[in-house]
Amino acid sequence: MEQVKFSFLISTKNRCEDVLLTLHKIEHLLSPDVNCVVFDDGSTDDTSEKIKQNFPEVILLRNEKSKGYIYCRNKMLNETKADFAISLDDDAHFLTEKPIEIITDYFQSNPNSGLIAARIFWGKDTIENTNSSETIQTVKSYIGCGHIWRMKAWRDIPNYPEWFEFYGEENFASLQLFKKKWEVHYVPQLLVQHRVDMGERAKSASNIAFRYRRAIRADWYTFFMFFPWRKIPRKMAYSLWMQFRNKIFKGNFKVAKPLVLAIWDLFVAVPKLVANRNALTLEEYNEYLKLNEAKIYWKPEK
Predict the structure, then answer these.
(1) Which end of the chain has the lower number of beta carbons within 10 A, N or C?
(2) Nearest to 100 by CA among 118, 113, 112, 126
(3) pLDDT digit string (tens) for 44-68?
(4) What is the Cα–Cα distance from 295 to 219, expressed in whole angstroms?
(5) How would you class 135 by CB atoms within 10 Å of its CB: exposed for 0-12, middle for 13-18, buried for 19 or more?
(6) Structurally, what CATH architecture does the domain formed by 6-197 represent?
């Protein structure tokens, strides 16, 4: 890939209209110093052909057979020659007018920041008030649909674990950054719209089960890879109790099967968890707990 200062990195699969809209929304940001890479992970809906036709300036990578979202993210991050990588989902775009300038200034002024987490608005509607009273803060993690890597920090940690499949790789990377003394900063001046209809997503029982299973097991993977041994039993007991108290005991039996499957996934993953363990010291663990939680959802302020 060519030497540039910034690179947009987008992975997509069978969401042609979404990725085309995203490319249209960010096209004006591209320049000799800013390129865009799209990784088509085995799409069968003519995604690659449409990108070639409509956005010839985009660097297009493709897997003929799907290798997974995390594989694509790792490959793009490892191959880019940019100083900073802007990672967007194929259904996400900036609402901020001059994001490149904001990112440049922020990284220059904050040398300890290894990653910037953007403010995320979830929804397909157009919003008029994009102002926010939120402040910049150091956080535990970030969300994949809108964040920016300082590539020096990415190269300082292991790749995202592909065996996570989906969910949780951001927490893995954040804890690796923490161990290396890099910080994750939430910068609300950068606003990204994630064009997802949460109501429609919630209607699909199979989709809910899929996401629930992977989300809960990813939390457990994090416990076993990064937390001091003495903290894990209590964390696991509390996590399981909360699933029963807030879901199953309230009649939400749809999560029972994915919960059992997540427990099974944890047992199967034990060899990988042990091999990849990079535990926090008790002192590091206590410092980590002081950080603010990841900022996942933002709603327009009245």
Answers:
(1) C
(2) 118
(3) 999 999 999 999 999 999 999 999 9
(4) 16
(5) exposed
(6) Alpha-Beta Complex (3.90)
